[in-house]
Design a protein that fits this description.
four-stranded mixed sheet, alpha/beta, 11 strands
Length: about 240
């Protein structure tokens, strides 16, 4: 990997066996990366980056001003989120099996006596993962019929810079665990977004047309997701 300096902005340049140049600005700090075909000269990439400088600065400002969640201590009465709703955490110690109980306004963590922060965090994250897999599976099954395609595999994992990803050839989708905390319409938007990538690799005119066809309100959901606080641990490098 090489780097280009544009004033105070550093751009990471990665050459790959691809056809087109791809520019990305990553949270939380606005790190800039360009993926470019191996055949393109560095100076050509620099000219491209300069032409996108205004857009880069705009994206960096949006990311740096985005609200962030504070670190969680996993104590009683602490706020946690599930599917876009706020719940108060309740910690209950037990000698029996550990579990998570969802109530109207409360998420109860039933943990082993003396459980530390990491153990509580793992219990809640495992529960998030299970519930997210269930919800995502239902969306995928629905949209497979609408799009006339088959997702061969999908999984849930922590992702530092993306809400989702798609391996087009394998028809495999990954979803960010943090989506368990976001409104269900945001989850559906990411599911549809990644499934459309099975049909179209890039974010070009055809991709946008397919998104408009399948989920006309996708821009509204995208804006909602981008306005929500970014998870504290989600964007740690």
């Amino acid at each position: 990997m090489t780097q280009i300096k544009l004033g105070e902005i550093t751009v990471d340049v990665v050459r790959k066996d691809i056809k087109n140049i791809h520019l990305s600005v990553y949270p939380p700090t606005g790190r800039v990366r360009i993926s470019a075909p191996s055949r393109i000269k560095l100076e050509t990439i620099r000219v491209y980056a300069v032409s996108k400088l205004g857009w880069i600065k705009k994206q960096q400002e949006k990311l740096r001003s985005q609200e962030r969640e504070t670190p969680r201590d996993y104590i009683t009465r602490e706020s946690h989120y599930f599917m876009g709703k706020r719940y108060l955490l309740k910690i209950t110690e037990t000698d029996a099996s550990q579990t998570v109980v969802l109530r109207h306004r409360e998420i109860e963590l039933v943990v082993k006596k003396g459980a530390d922060l990491k153990q509580k965090q793992k219990l809640l994250e495992d529960w998030y993962r299970k519930r997210l897999r269930h919800s995502a599976g239902k969306y995928i099954a629905f949209w497979e019929k609408q799009m006339n395609l088959k997702v061969e595999e999908f999984g849930i994992k922590r992702m530092r810079t993306k809400w989702g990803s798609c391996n087009r050839e394998a028809k495999r989708i990954w979803l960010n665990l943090e989506l368990a905390k976001k409104p269900k319409e945001c989850l559906e938007y990411i599911v549809v977004h990644e499934m459309v990538h099975v049909l179209e690799r890039n974010h070009g005119t055809r991709f946008v047309a397919l998104m408009d066809q399948f989920l006309p309100q996708w821009r509204q959901y995208k804006d909602e997701l981008n306005r929500l606080p970014v998870g504290h641990s989600n964007w740690r490098y």
